[in-house]
Design goal:
There is one protein chain. This protein is α+β, with helices and mostly antiparallel strands. It has one domain (about 5-75). About 20% of the residues lie in helices and about 25% in strands. The protein contains one helix and three strands. β1, α1 (about 25-40) and β2 (about 45-50) form a beta-alpha-beta unit. It is elongated and about 45 Å long. The model is unreliable at about 65-70 (pLDDT under 50).
């Protein structure tokens, strides 16, 4: 088993971005990206998880929030 000190540090940020017009989704996205960039600049691998309805889906049914999870990975500097 590898020494825990030798493993890279990794963290995940869960961001809830609203798909409703008139909400502050732009500000939320900017804050999440700034937070991810802060940790990535320190060499910490970051995954940003967002749950949102697929914008191509025009059905009126509510979306199960556990189905559509998008993962964005930051680059290690």
């Amino acid at each position: 088993m590898p020494d825990p000190v030798d493993r890279p540090i990794k963290m995940a940020i869960l961001g809830l971005i609203s798909a409703h017009p008139g909400t502050n989704r732009g500000g939320t996205a900017v804050s999440i990206v700034r937070l991810a960039n802060y940790f990535a600049a320190q060499g910490i691998l970051v995954e940003v998880l967002t749950r949102r309805k697929d914008l191509r889906d025009t059905s009126p049914e509510p979306v199960d929030p556990t189905v559509n999870i998008h993962v964005l990975r930051s680059r290690k500097n």
